[in-house]
Amino acid sequence: MTFGDSFPQFVYPVQFILFIHKHPYKPFLFNEATKLIVGTLPPPRFSTGELKEGDVNFCYGSRDGQLWPILDRTFALNLVYETTRKAIEQRKKFLIERKIGICDIVQSAERSKIDASDIGMQNIKLRNLIFYLQEYPNIETLLFTGGNSKNGPEYFFRQHLKQHQIKLAVVSDQVPRIHQFILPLIRNERRIIKTVSLTAPSGAANRAVGSLAVYKKLKLKNPSFNTLDFRVLQYAPYF
After folding, report:
1. Which CATH superfamily is domain 21-202 in?
2. Of 85, 71, 87, which Cα lies nearest the Cα of 37?
3. If exposure means fewest CB atoms within 10 Å of the residue's CB, which of 121, 134, 231, 235 is most exposed?
4. Can you give the pTM of this predicted structure?
């Protein structure tokens, strides 16, 4: 036995530091809004303020995201993609004119890996969307930027409805899937709210798009047809 062997050896546990991912933006809401875009969280860099060139410091402003390019093409908005006040105001102007608000359902989450994946979120705190729907009586449609896969916006909204003992009824089971529910009584009125689960406007969802029979059919007719083209066709009727 050597001198070093006579001392006890301690094994210190590995400590994982969780990243607290807080939503950087308040809901974009106004009295005239009739539709509400509902997602989860923007990439962590929007919470830390470490934006990349081409990012817009606003909802869905990631240079890698497709929501604004989809709407840009659909409505010929001539948007700029840069970290400027002009870029923000262009988007706000469009939303107000089209009476569209934004209220992502996740307020905060913890991450062991700092990335933008929905599946990597844990200890999630949700926003009270029922409260916002009651406060803004003209909203009649929720546009989910993703479906019912785990940690997607529809997935969380279903959990939220269960807490309020509200049932979600199927209207159409075709992509994009459409549901509806009855908002609890307020101001002596009941409202029926429609939900539309759009294909997520992210590169991560491209594989799922490519597997859809309707996409394959369109691709066969036009080999240059791509996943962005597909989303433009899908999103246009609901915006």
Report:
1. Uracil-DNA glycosylase-like domain (3.40.470.10)
2. 71
3. 134
4. 0.89
